[in-house]
Amino acid sequence: YQIEMSQLTALEELGKGQYGTVRRVRHEPTGVEMAMKEIRLELDKSKLDGIIMELDVLHKSTSPFIVDFYGAFFVESTVYYCMEYMDAGSLDKLEAADGLPEAVLARTVWCVVKGLMFLKEELSIIHRDVKPTNILVNTKGEVKLCDFGVSGQLEKSLAKTNIGCQPYMAPERITPSTNSTYTVASDVWSLGLSIVEMGLGRYPYANESSVFAQITAIVQNDPPKLPEDKFSAECRDFVARCLDKVPTRRPTYRQLLRHPWLARFENPDGEGAK
Ligand code: ATP
Ligand code: MG
Predict the structure, then answer these.
(1) How far is residue 164's CA from residue 156's CA, in Å, rounded to a whole number?
(2) Spatial distance between the Cα atoms of 16 and 104, rounded to a whole number of angstroms
(3) Which residues does ligand 1 sit against, CB inside 6 Å?
(4) Under 8 Å CB-to-CB from 193, ≥6 apart: which residues?
(5) What SS3 class is residue 75?
(6) ipTM of this complex prediction, to 2 decimal places
(7) pLDDT per residue over 55-82, tens digit each?
(8) In which residues is ATP bound (predicted)?
(9) What's the CA gap between 125 and 121, in Å, rounded?
(10) What is the pTM of this model?
């Protein structure tokens, strides 16, 4: 079943990213409200069908921790990607001025790790863009991931309008050594950085003066931490393990789910089941 632009009524703008605008839309034939992401591409038209084909794997995959995919179509060289509308928005907007309370943070992170593990195990996908704006919440209390790297073709064709100014990339992505392929470990770093950001209520390297200074700080400084007076030892240990500068020492998703900070959500009678 193919969604078309003519079936959609545009509602308000939800936000703007590097590749275009995200809008709330209503799909008139079904009455379903969706979030429609505009992704401007630089490519020849022959590649468009390949991209739509690559996105098709998303139809086969559903997880309570991944934003549902409804379909994609293109108009000229812009891809319109229709996904589940998350009515409480992204985590960056929920971060109160002084950050999320630890209990909320822990449940959020558990959902994110479940989502990342689903992508890896069921779809063999590495997310590549873990950050608070790509963690969405709805008023049912569900936490879901969006904007993962499904389509290599799409990735190669992105027309960036502005360079992201808050790098969540792992140190090994900045100074690649012998083996510079992107692995799950790099997503674990980005997860760790996102946890610190959500806990503090601000991007941890934000006091650096430029993108260059931020990138230098990622490579040279000790990894950021959450303050001792507001966060438990388990929480701070979890973050420290994700933000190990040596990628091979970072935990796997399975190990993260067994960590004392999250283990209680894995118990069927625990809070995570509710
Ligand atoms: P970047 O372009 O660097 O990835 P970004 O994630 O903020 O940054 P977009 O993915 O274009 O950029 O999203 C823009 C904003 O739209 C997000 O910050 C988020 O608040 C909102 N948004 C995206 N998808 C949805 C959705 N499915 N439901 C509700 N809001 C959404
Ligand atoms: Mg996004």
Answers:
(1) 16
(2) 26
(3) 14-19, 22, 35, 37, 67, 83-86, 89-90, 93, 129, 133-134, 136, 146-147, 164
(4) 131, 168, 204, 224, 243
(5) strand
(6) 0.98
(7) 888 887 789 999 999 999 988 888 899 9
(8) 37
(9) 8
(10) 0.91
